[in-house]
Amino acid sequence: MPVEQRSYDTSNGSLPYLFSLASDDANKPAPLVLFLHGGRDRGTDLNVLLKWGLPRFVDSSNSLPYFFAAPQILEGQTWVERESDAIALLDNLIASHPIDASRVILAGFSLGTAGAWHIAASHPGRFAGLVAVSGRVPKTLEQNQLAALKEIPIQIFQGGQDKNLSLEDAQHIVDTLRGQGGIVDLAVLPEGDHFIADEVYGDPKLQQWLVSQSRRTSVAV
What we know:
There is one protein chain. By secondary structure, the chain is of the alpha/beta class. It contains seven helices and eight strands. The two termini are about 30 Å apart. The chain has helices at about 55-60, 85-95, 110-120, 145-150, 165-180, 195-200, 205-210, and strands at about 5-10, 15-20, 30-35, 65-70, 100-110, 130-135, 155-160, 185-190. The protein has an eight-stranded mixed sheet, with helices on both faces. The chain has one domain: 3-Layer(aba) Sandwich (Rossmann fold), CATH 3.40.50.1820. Helix content is about 30%, strand content about 25%. Helix 5 (about 165-180) links the parallel strand 7 and strand 8 (about 185-190).
């Protein structure tokens, strides 16, 4: 479904973002997928986000059963720095659209994956799932923050030929979270490099997973 280009005013300045409506009945609450882009897509041109990965998949799809939002940060910024703005945008979207707040998925690529790990760990009660593509877990996350992620189903994707990331590091975080009772899946694309977002986000199985998750009732918002 074609995406709109919007902007949300925050205390740190405007946060431009792509947005797409869910295809289902307008009065029926639907999930939301909040996507955080990678480092090379920072800037002031939202069209850059539409060139590949999940934004392009959404833009080129006739209809999807979820709302979609993809904010864009400025060159030199990180998602950790804009954490409060991403959450504020999420709150605004939930307040202004029939979004099911118990079915919000946080997804990322590269720099955006690092941001997704951080934001999900800081606000574990807000998300029904996490999709981490080609990105590492920030070393600044405390052990208690990682423990908070055990209630969130997580899908991790990494290219076997990715020179930027270590498969050992990915397996370590999987083992750590599973040891705490977390639901974590790690998928390695053997021939994939760092830029696997097109293949990952266009996969029908992942698309089905995005709409099949619901926040665990044991998690407090």
